[in-house]
Input
Amino acid sequence: MDRPMSELPETMRAVRLHDWGKPPLLEEVPVPHPTGQEVLLRVEAAGLCQSDLHIMDAAPGMVPYQLPFTLGHEVVGTVVATGDEVSDALPGGRYAVHGIWSCGHCRQCLRGRENYCFALTGPIGGGIGYDGGLADYVLVPAAHHLVPAQGVDPVALAPLTDAGLTAYHALRPYTSLVPGGVVVVVGIGGLGHLALQLVAQLEPCGVVAVDARQEARALAKRLGATAVTASVGEAARAVAEMDSGPGADLVLDFVGSTETLRRGASLLAPGGRLALVGSAGGRVSVAKGADFPRGWGITAPFWGPRRDLEQVVALASQGILRAETETYRLDQALEAYKRLRAGEVHGRAVVVPGR
Output
C-alpha cells in the first residue's frame, strides 16, 4: 500500500443516486477498504455525462441497477491503497479508469472486446450500477480496469475515458474509408467535437459538421471542418459540393434522432457506413436495396475496449485529442448537472474533488 488505510480518512463525500427520477444527493459515506484484487484511488477528476441524466431519469425497473450508488463513470485518479493480491507497483501512480467492469474471461473479453462482455447484463461499471468516481475516492474491482496516465492532465483526460473512447471506437473500424473520403459528423457536442479531432488525423478529403447551435458550428470550424451546417438536410448540399465524388463515405451520428438517422443514411455513397452513437431514440427502417446505396452498412457501437482507451490516453498525452472542459468542485456537482440538463455546458463538465 502507498498509505495504510489508517492514514486515510474514515469518510468521504460522494454524489449518490437514491431514487429514480430524482436528483442525486451529496453525502458523507465511509471510505471503502480494498481487499483481494481491488484498488482504491483518490479521485483527481470525474466527468459528467448525458448518460448520467438518462440514469437519473429512468423509471423504476427500467435499468437493472440497485439503488443507491455513486455516480461518475469518467474517472482519473491516483492509487492510494490496494488489496493483498495486487502488485505493489501500482500505488502512487495516476490511472484512467476503464469504466466497463467486464468479467475478463468470456470469449468477448478474451478477444479484447470487453465492452461487449457477456456478463454485462446488469451494472456495467463504476457510476453505472456500481459506485463510481463522483467522490473523493473510488474503489475499482481489479487493476486490469486501469490504464496508466502518468503525466497527463487529469481534467483533460477524465472526459476522454468515455467521450473520447466512444468516439475513437466508433471511428476505428472505418479508418480505411476516411483518407481521401468525405465524412459527416452529426452533433458537435461532448463526443462530436472529439470525433472531429480524430477524423482530422486521417486527412479526409472533406468533413461536414452538423449542429443546430451556432457556438457548436463555430467550434467545428475551429477544429478544421471543411463545411458546417445547421441540419443534415443542409449537409447534403455541402457533401454534393465536395470534389471527390457523390455521397459520404462515413456518417458519424452523435445525435441519433429519427430525423438524423433517416437523412444521414441518405447521404451515404456506395459502400458507405453510418455509425449510430447518439441516444436520442431515433429509428430507421432498413432493407437491402430500397433507397440505400449499394453495399451500405450501419453499426451501433458501444463505448470501447481497454485497448482503445490506451490509444486515447496516448493521443491525449501527445496533445492530439483534447476535450473542451468546464471544471467544478465536488460540492458544485449538483449545480453542474443542472447546467448539463439545460444545455449550458460547453464541451464536457469535469468535477475536481480536491478543490
